[in-house]
Amino acid sequence: MNQHLSATADAAVPIGTSDVPSDVVRLVELKRRFGVTPALDGVSLTVRKGEILGIIGRSGAGKSTLIRCLNGLERPDSGQVFIEGREISRLGERELQPLRRRIGMIFQHFNLLSAKTVEENVALPLKIEGRPRAERLERAAELLALVGLLEKAKAYPASLSGGQKQRVGIARALAARPALLLSDEATSALDPETTRSILALLKDINRQLGLTILLITHEMEVIRSIAARVAVIDAGRIVEQGPVWSVFADPKSAITQSLLGGIRPQLPAEIQSRLTRTESGEAILRIDVAGEAARQPLLSDLAAAVPGSFRLIHGGIDHVQQQPVGTLFLAVPGNDANHLTRVIAFLKARDARVEVLGHVANPV
Length: 364
Fold this sequence. Notes:
The protein is an alpha/beta fold. The chain has helices spanning 2-11, 63-70, 93-100, 118-129, 133-146, 162-174, 192-209, 220-226, 244-249, 254-259, 269-272, 292-295, 298-305, 337-349, and strands at residues 23-34, 37-48, 52-56, 78-83, 86-87, 103-107, 180-184, 212-217, 229-234, 237-243, 282-290, 311-320, 323-333, 353-360. The protein is elongated.
């Protein structure tokens, strides 16, 4: 059954083109204002065929306006929106209808029709298309099997858990064999365990069907769990983007650093409160490493190469996209400036990013 789903998805033909473009979505200098407030301020972005891209930002950053421009519900003031190679931002409603069927959508609050059964909810997009009932029910059964809810086909949404409702929402979004799946805060209303199961399902669907997925979220843990690339949006602009592991290892913008604050090691508050700029006592270093640098015995090599003491006070190595990403906090005696300089030089020579956070008067 999964092979059949994969074959039919791959056989779908993009609207308005005979060739499948490498980018399912391409945004060029997208701008949208509401009064004097810019919701989008020159957004350029691509989503490649078959990838999972996460767009993250705080409330009010422009995520909702961006997703409405993607599905044609909002028209940009300027710029271009390409879906499978076709520019859609100036299309009329009649021209948009077939294109919207190429875009599946899953929502934070599920948006299921309470008076319809699970299979009727899943089959609804096909009913709107005018497909025969037998075809609709066959497709609904395929998709409910895919999301693990075939036994709930005759049930009503009221009898389902939140995770089950979201699985139905995912099945419904796949009914018309879309080229792009938009996930708008789809796990925000779910508990952590259910969130993990939904993200695992989306990742499995991406792998089985080669489906392109665009995730809109404010949760960096969601990005870390599933996305290959991430774009950070703030005040209507993309302030940073790249492979997830690379952005996690070396976040450039203040907003990215803030969003990562909950899942990257941070200096313990008790030590943070004692930091001063007075160069006495112990210097507290933050060391960020990733990739090959994080695979090396960095601290033992430091001890062998630079005589003198230092202490590991916090941190560790994590793995993101099969890449090691680490943050370590060292305390180095600050009464020997040459020793501190040699420690920092050695670490930087090993491709580590080093920051002197301050000094503490007494050992931590």
